[in-house]
Amino acid sequence: MLSTKEVEALLGEMNDPVLNVPFSETEGVVEVKIKEEKEHVSVKLAIGRLGGQEQLDLQMKVVDLLKENGFATVGIRFEELEDDLINEHRGNEASPIESQFSDGKTEFISVASGKGGVGKSTVSVNLAVSLAKAGKKVGIIDADIYGFSVPDMMGIVDKPAVEGEKIIPVERYGVQVISMAFFVEENTPVIWRGPMLGKMLTSFFNEVQWGELDYLILDLPPGTGDVALDVHQMLPHSKEIIVTTPHPTAAFVAARAGSMALHTDHEIIGVVENMSYFESEVSGQKEYVFGTGGGEKLALDLDVPLLGQVPLGQPKWDHDDFAPSIYKDDKISDIYTEIANSIIEKSEDEQSKE
Ligand SMILES: Nc1ncnc2c1ncn2[C@@H]1O[C@H](COP(=O)(O)OP(=O)(O)OP(=O)(O)O)[C@@H](O)[C@H]1O
């Protein structure tokens, strides 16, 4: 029968399924105990993230391996690796993106918020359309799985076509769109968690024929709960924009979304304050209906620029469809155009430095 040291060495060659690094490097083999008379081994492993499909798959592999090596029974426990060890090895983390984006030409921009209803989807859509208007090739993934509103906001009624094994995004206002809404029956509650969610997001990246893209905008689930965290962890590293309303308490909640982004290794590139004020068309006077200062405070706290302040504006209709503000309201269009330009400038700046 193998000794404790031999079992440690054997397990040390296996990869942490989340970080894609051998356990010998992550110090992931925490404990090995053998009861020779009962041919029993019990092991404790520390992995990059608990609770996912990866953990279940690993559990089976470990049990199989140890049984092949002569143990009759195997006990296995897991704990999460310490944060500094996770951060040290994060660069190797398995990402759901495959060859479609491996040339590094596509920039991922996630749009997040501390709570629902602050206009995260509105900002995602208008930003995507503004970038497309500026001549960029743009896609949008509506990853707000429980509140998919992007197709409605863009007036999309078509479903994506399927060619062979690939899903073709729906094009609207020059933007390639994929939404969870395309794949669930109307009014069916979505109750996917963990592994199912991961599969859906992975297929949004891998099974969708995106073509060449300069930007892929990701409309994230709102808030800082489990689902938002899961989505953050599953996404490739992205630049992130945090949307808030002007009320200082809203900004406080949004700051939590900011720390989630940083904790999961996304780079925050700016804040958009939405519903900043109402401007009377008659007198031109601005009323700060929801307070002031939230966006500025959040930007200061996160040490990023305030990319724009978007006023309240009536939803606009284009024929029978809702149209993004960027297409209708001159003042709001200008603000989104400015936000898009500063994002483009930042990307070009970074590219010229590479
Ligand atoms: N600047 C604005 N002026 C007027 N209405 C707005 C503005 N921004 C958003 N809205 C409206 O507020 C509602 C919520 O917006 P939206 O769906 O974009 O928020 P959200 O943060 O994505 O919400 P959730 O994440 O809960 O889906 C929508 O009806 C939208 O039309």
From TrEMBL:
ATP binds at G114, K115, G116, G117, V118, G119, K120, S121. Homodimer. SUPFAM superfamilies: P-loop containing nucleoside triphosphate hydrolases. Gene3D superfamilies: P-loop containing nucleotide triphosphate hydrolases (3.40.50.300). GO terms for biological process: iron-sulfur cluster assembly. GO terms for molecular function: 4 iron, 4 sulfur cluster binding; ATP binding; ATP hydrolysis activity; ATP-dependent FeS chaperone activity; metal ion binding. InterPro entries: Mrp-like_CS, Mrp/NBP35_ATP-bd, NUBPL-like, P-loop_NTPase, YlxH/NBP35. It comes from Lacicoccus qingdaonensis. The keyword Iron applies. Belongs to the Mrp/NBP35 ATP-binding proteins family. Keywords: ATP-binding, Hydrolase, Iron, Iron-sulfur, Metal-binding, Nucleotide-binding. This is Iron-sulfur cluster carrier protein. Binds and transfers iron-sulfur (Fe-S) clusters to target apoproteins. Can hydrolyze ATP.
